[in-house]
TrEMBL record:
Gene3D superfamilies: Aldolase class I (3.20.20.70). This is Alkene reductase. Signal peptide: none annotated. Residues 8-333 form the NADH:flavin oxidoreductase/NADH oxidase N-terminal domain. Keywords: Plasmid. InterPro entries: Aldolase_TIM (IPR013785), OxRdtase_FMN_N (IPR001155), Oye-like (IPR045247). It comes from Sinorhizobium kummerowiae.
Length: 363
């Protein structure tokens, strides 16, 4: 009897692109860029190795000097950044792949030693996250950020717009706004990080305003069908607490973003199944679902059930450049080396083994 093909391997339209499968490489910080934010020399090989996946979403990439949080993360706002990313996108396209650059403004998750201008981090409000960060001189407490003025918030929106245009100039197929994982966009959502009393704080509509303005500006600049956003409803890391109104905020936010016709929303799922079901109903475009720790035998389950259009994987893709091939062959997966996740050179970056014609295939 013929075994039906897992729907994860079927093609799907996302924005203006037809993707060959429904697997997505989730964004993963690797901290291997040059100190000026230009992607590192090995980054092209890293992404090209994974070009068979339906969509690559790059590591978080800062849209400005203020946007950098961690040491040696890439940027996409200077000519050098654009030139560096163009090498990567061109090579990925030569292999038939698609690549979105994730725009990540770290907000208060930053340390002056890690940024080009060595200035205090910025955030919705002057509230420290109560966390440490690795810097050029080792682990340090993250200092209290400076609260952005309303005019500076608007300038930050403009920074995102400029970075999105720069990403397209660098050959990216589109951009993903990082609205998750306790960084700037999500800091505006959370009352624990946002105590503003102006148009960007207080009510649900006001706390969602920054995200909507960023998405609107980028969609105007590069096209809604090349613009996407990642969200992680319910995240509690690094002092983020969205409160009892959190789910209500996300229902409002998703409904408003839906009107823009973005390419996709990418959900980093934290376990609220009723909210996820509501997001699916409210969102009328492509939905990517990332379930941390999803077991291998559940790959494709959310696509098969209709809950998601695509599924994103991080560590599995990090450790398996030939992830798609291994899944189709029912082959064993490499285990990731956590000691090489951040920083370093080739080890744990571009040297994970790939299948040969006769090895690692399960009987």
């Amino acid at each position: 009897m013929e075994i039906p093909m897992n729907p994860i391997f079927t093609s799907v339209r996302v924005g203006r692109y037809m993707l060959p499968n429904r697997l997505v490489m989730a964004p993963m910080t690797r901290s291997r860029a040059a100190f000026d934010g230009t992607p590192g020399e090995l980054a092209t090989e890293y992404y090209v190795q994974r070009a068979r996946i339906g969509l690559i979403v790059t590591e978080g990439t800062q849209p400005s000097d203020d946007g950098q949080g961690y040491i040696t993360t890439p940027g996409i706002y200077t000519p050098a950044h654009i030139a560096g990313w163009r090498k990567i996108t061109s090579a990925v396209h030569d292999k038939g792949g698609h690549i979105f650059i994730q725009l990540m403004h770290a907000g208060r998750m930053s340390h002056p030693e890690n940024t080009p201008h060595h200035r205090q981090g910025v955030a919705p409000s002057a509230i420290a996250p109560g966390a440490g960060m690795f810097t050029t001189t080792g682990m340090q407490d993250i200092p209290t950020p400076r609260a952005l003025t309303a005019e500076e918030v608007r300038r930050t929106v403009a920074d995102f717009r400029h970075a999105a245009r720069s990403a397209i100039e660098a050959g990216a197929d589109g951009i993903e706004i990082h609205g998750a994982n306790a960084y700037l966009v999500q800091q505006f959502f959370a009352p624990s990080a946002n105590t503003r009393t102006d148009e960007y704080g207080g009510s649900i509509e006001n706390r969602a305003r920054f995200a909507i303005e960023v998405a609107t500006a980028i969609a105007e600049e590069i096209g809604a069908d090349r613009t996407a956003i990642r969200l992680s409803p319910g995240t509690t890391m690094w002092g983020i607490d969205e409160g009892v109104e959190g789910p209500v905020l996300y229902r409002y936010l998703v409904a408003e973003l839906d009107k823009l016709g973005l390419a996709y929303v990418h959900i980093m799922h934290q376990g609220n199944e009723p909210l996820l079901a509501d997001v699916r109903k409210l969102w009328h475009h492509s939905l990517i679902l990332n379930r941390p720790g999803r077991p291998r035998d559940q790959i494709g389950a959310d696509v098969a059930s209709g809950l998601a259009d695509l599924e994103a994987y991080g560590q599995m893709v990090l450790a398996n450049p030939d992830f798609v091939v291994r899944l189709k062959a029912d082959a064993a997966l490499n285990e990731p080396d956590r000691n090489t996740y951040f920083g370093g050179a080739a080890q744990g970056y571009i040297d994970y083994p790939v299948l040969s014609a006769r090895t690692d295939i399960r009987s």
